Amino acid sequence: MRDPIELEVFKNLYHSIAEEMGAVLRRTAFSPNIKERRDYSCAVFDSRGRVIAMGDHMPVHLGSMPMSVAAAIAQCEQDNCPLEPGDVVMLNDPFRGGTHLPDITLVMAVYTSRSHQLRSDSRPRLSSGAKPRIHAPDFYVGSRAHHADVGGTYPGSMGPCREIYQEGLRIPPVKIMRAGKIIPDILALLLNNVRTPEEREGDLGAQIAACQTGAHRLREICSRYGLQRAQKAAAHLLDYSEQLMRSFLATVPPGAYKAEDFLDDDGVSPKPIRIAVTLRVGHSLAATRLPVSKRKRTTNDERQTTNLTIDFTGTDPQVRGAVNAVEAITYSACFYVFRCLLRDDVPATAGLMRPIHVIAPAGTVVNAGPPAAVAGGNVEMSQRIVDVLLKALAQAIPDRIPAAAAGTMNNLTIGGIDSRSTNAPDLAQPFAYYETIAGGMGARPTKDGVSGVHTHMTNSLNTPAEALENAYPVRLRQYSLRPNSGGQGLHRGGHGIIREIEVLTDSQVTLLADRRARGPYGLAGGEDGAKGRTIIIRNDGSEEEIPGKTSVRLSAGERVRIESPGGGGWGKPA
Question: Is 421 exposed, middle or buried (0-12, 13-18, 19+ CB in 10 A)?
Fold first, then answer.
């Protein structure tokens, strides 16, 4: 029998830990991308790697992070090198629970008992020379942050590549810390393969500090309430989340709801990329585990029935361009959409997905395999997966679903050599600037959409003009809403953004964006939002519109102007 008061207390305790971890990460990070844009996420996991609390951070990170935790645990078990007190595992491999290479995840095991906070190699050796076995961790904490560069062909590691080996350094689950100390060889390997090593080291240190903060707070909770009570409350939170999701799904009319949507292209071929989904609501499916992937054993519990099946059969095969999504991204998008349909106070735990069965066929753009390029899958394909899920749900619960938002993160990276701080050109340092640019939110059944806001799988902010110009050799020439870009309707879609940046040194400008061929869809008779576009303004005054997925060279004084899409309208115009 669950005590509702105790459940609420622990729900807020665990959530506050994830939030404080995020605050520590933000305050101690080096890069504007993390410090200003807040492109990071933190979460708390139980002893089996099941998420029990998430910060109010990036949806695309949070839904997929449990798979990184599972991959870290599995690798340590396979190597017979368990996560011990003070150990931290680092990884970014998209095919092992990651999203794309710039998102580096750190996983720390938390031991709350004082006797287990001592490392095992400080104890007497067994006669065989083996270490005494440490019991399983009581909890895990994780932090994920988007690093502005992890090597690869293009500055910012977000270019239109054709295979993952071009996108940057791919890190399997490896220990970056052992017994509370950095492993210098691993750190050196990482820092020697990126353009901005000092910034990367600072951001990694901030992630470690976030994990240590989470571990400290968990030990405080267990010291006050006892480990058994804290773990029992965590298990009850999982069950409570499951119960609330099942209650919601019971209100959705039974049936099969189909939808499709498209990415413009993959940056290699002009062919549109189809994402298809069928939602089957209200049937029962006997299952012991959610068989989306063997890698998710610790993120999905035994369950009796499935109330919803999300089936992406019919989606296009993986493509040559960098817009492929790995399985973790698709799972994360499904988690996000159905979490949004619940009340704000529902715990965001692994229990929410127990009644939901996801079918993401291997080898498609929603479950790509090596050596697929995936930089844009995390940012562009994830948005389109959300769009197609909402379009299908609009058939079932039309009074709850908004029209399509901008549907793209407008990923902009600028890189080159920053010579502002020295008169000696040979001492100038590389720089790599990365940002996503907001757009219009789709209109809702009861009100207009919001203008100039990051939506759905991104929850980041902009880089303020002052921080941008201080950190990088660029100048912000225009930053405003894009007039008349929201789709018309009974309720109007939100307007997009105009952001124009001048480079002050010769630079490589790279774009990964979408919704350039077709605007975000309207619903219930509402009109589509305006398509996005990107303009290069040369020093001679000429203007050139460039594709959504490309990389161009700019000379000092030239400008790039992003005009992001507006949201779709809802309802026929009055």
Answer: exposed
Question: Can you tell me the distance from the alpha carbon of 322 to that of 378, in angstroms, rounded to the nearest whole number?
Answer: 10
pLDDT in tens, 99-157: 999 999 999 999 998 545 544 443 334 344 455 455 789 999 999 999 999 999 999 99
Q: Are the C-beta atoms of 186 and 175 separated by less than 8 Å?
A: yes
Among 570, 551, 568, CA closest to 407? 568
Q: Please report, to the nearest 10 degrees, the dihedral formed by the alpha carbons of residues 556, 436, 97, 131 taken in order.
A: 70
Average pLDDT score over residue span 336-361: 95
Q: 1, 3, 4, 8: which is closest to 345 by C-alpha?
A: 8
Phi, psi of 416, deg, nearest 5? 175, -150
Q: HSE (CB half, 13 Å, CA atoms) of 202?
A: 16
**pLDDT band at 424, cuts 50/70/90?**
low
Cα dihedral 10, 204, 509, 425 in deg (nearest 10): 150
The overall average pLDDT reported for the chain is 91
C-alpha separations of 465 from 25, 120, 408, 471 in Å: 22, 50, 22, 10
Strand stretches in 294-346, DSSP E = 308-311
What's the confidence (pLDDT) of residue 287?
A: 38
With vertex at residue 312, the alpha carbon angle to CA 309 and CA 316, rounded to the nearest 5 degrees, is 175
Q: Are 7 and 233 in contact (CB under 8 A)?
A: yes
**Is pLDDT at 254 greater than 50 in this prediction?**
yes
pLDDT digits (tens, 9 = 90+) for 426-474: 668 999 999 999 999 999 999 999 999 999 998 899 999 999 999 999 9
Which string of b and e fits 359-382 if b means at least 16 CB within 10 Å? Answer: bbeeebbbbbeeebbbbbbbbbbb
What local confidence, expressed as pLDDT, does residue 425 receive? 59
Cβ-Cβ contacts under 8 Å for 130 (sequence gap 6 or more)? none
Q: Could you identify the residue written with the tokens 């990070």? A: 29
Tokens of 116: 């287990």
Is the pLDDT assigned to residue 280 strictly greater than 80? yes
**Phi, psi torsion values for 516, nearest 5 degrees:** -100, -25
H helix intervals, 408-539: 465-471
DSSP-derived letter for residue 39 is: -
- Find out whether 34 and 435 touch, Cβ atoms under 8 Å: no
pLDDT in tens, 363-415: 999 999 999 999 999 999 999 999 999 999 999 999 999 999 999 999 999 99
Burial of 286 (0-12, 13-18, 19+ CB in 10 A): exposed
pLDDT of residue 423: 60
Residue type, 413: T
Cis-peptide into 371, omega within 30 deg: yes
> What are the structure tokens assigned to 251, written together?
């209100």
